[in-house]
Amino acid sequence: MEMLSAYTLPAPTFDQSLTLVGRGTPMGELLRRYWHPVALSSDATRTPRIVTALGERLVLFRDGEGRAGLLHERCAHRGTSLYYGKVDDRGIRCCYHGWLFDVDGKCLEQPCEPAGGARTAARVRQPGYPVQELYGLIFAYMGPPERMPLLPRYDVLEELAPGEFIEADDTSLGSGGPAIVPCNWLQHFENVMDPFHVPILHGSFSGNQFVAQMALMPEVVFEETERGIQSIQARDLGEGQLHRRITEAVLPTVRAVANPRAESVGSCSLLGWVLPIDDTSFRIYSAGRVAEPGALARIRSHFNGKLWHELTEEEHRELPGDYEAQVGQGAITAHSEEHLVTSDKGIGMLRRLYRRQVERVAAGGDPIGTRFGDADALVRLSAGTAIVAADRAA
Ligand code: FES
Ligand SMILES: [Fe+2]
Questions:
Q1: Angle subtended at Cα 315 by Cα 313 and Cα 317, rounded to the nearest 5 degrees
Q2: What are the tens digits of pLDDT across the range 113-133?
Q3: Which PANTHER family does the record associate with it (predicted)?
Q4: Using one digit for the tens of pLDDT, what is the confidence trace for 86-108?
Q5: For residue 79, which atom of ligand 1 is closest to its CA?
Q6: How many distinct structural domains can be found in the chain?
Q7: What is the position in ligand 1's atom list of the atom closest to the CA of 76?
Q8: pTM
């Protein structure tokens, strides 16, 4: 066959409605119908901190009563960044003219106005978003107030064994890499529905990064659930035994993936939320059941005994991991140049599910998995690992 000249390639394009996260974009509006973790609880202090989520710059702080606040960065007066503000017992005070805003954005004082703004301050509101704290994370709802769903709770983080507690972490991809990853969030989230890369990228190409059974090529069934897409993977251990592993991509961006570095079986002990920082960067917030402090941060891929950030450039090429694979697709991958095949079935199902939810939101509906009012906020997951007899694989 003649070579396909790269000269003939049309200009690359990507599906904007799946990738872009700004307000007013199709995916941006879908994502804004859910709660997203935007910080660790410990990040909210008397020192204001910039949080960028879904392309919006916000200021996070904690007032003297212990309440976390997440406000629009630009002061409602004349736009100075509240990053330079000072937090006191009642709220955050802008450095420029001293307006004081509480965690709900209510203006309490205008020191340069008559009587300190006693008659005028209440007319001003600093915009912001509601937050709730759960699992050591701060969740924000950045969508239309009248469509705010319940903050989900997850069975795997609620049902603890004696001695277990929940720990949160924000340090890395888990599979190696820095806290902030410079590519579109969907490249990472789709990877959750790509069990076939595991025996290649993690099981042989770069040595074996996970436990031995993960290096086996699985047989996989993909299914749509009432919360996302799941893959049911079977790996033949021989002697009539199968390693059965279920991973879930839960909308909007929750990874329910059992630790591939542990031999233990049982329900998935760890959830990861992919937070799109903007269109071309994301980070992961995780929460998991642990028995010792610091356990989550220790679940990291090692490459020849080294952590990702300890590798030289040569070693990154020698031992690539998820970071190299996903960032290597480009800032936003060119969908027009892909060749999706049978092993990409989970990716296709996930994209179609997102497209349907985008349409549902555009048509005025509420997307999959959202619950309201008195509904039970507890989500029951199937993700986990088991060893089963080969004849009971299905
Ligand atoms: S700009 Fe913030 S108080 Fe004036
Ligand atoms: Fe991976």
A1: 75
A2: 999 999 999 999 999 999 999
A3: BLR4922 PROTEIN, IRON-SULFUR DOMAIN CONTAINING PROTEIN
A4: 999 999 999 999 999 999 999 99
A5: 1
A6: 2
A7: 2
A8: 0.96
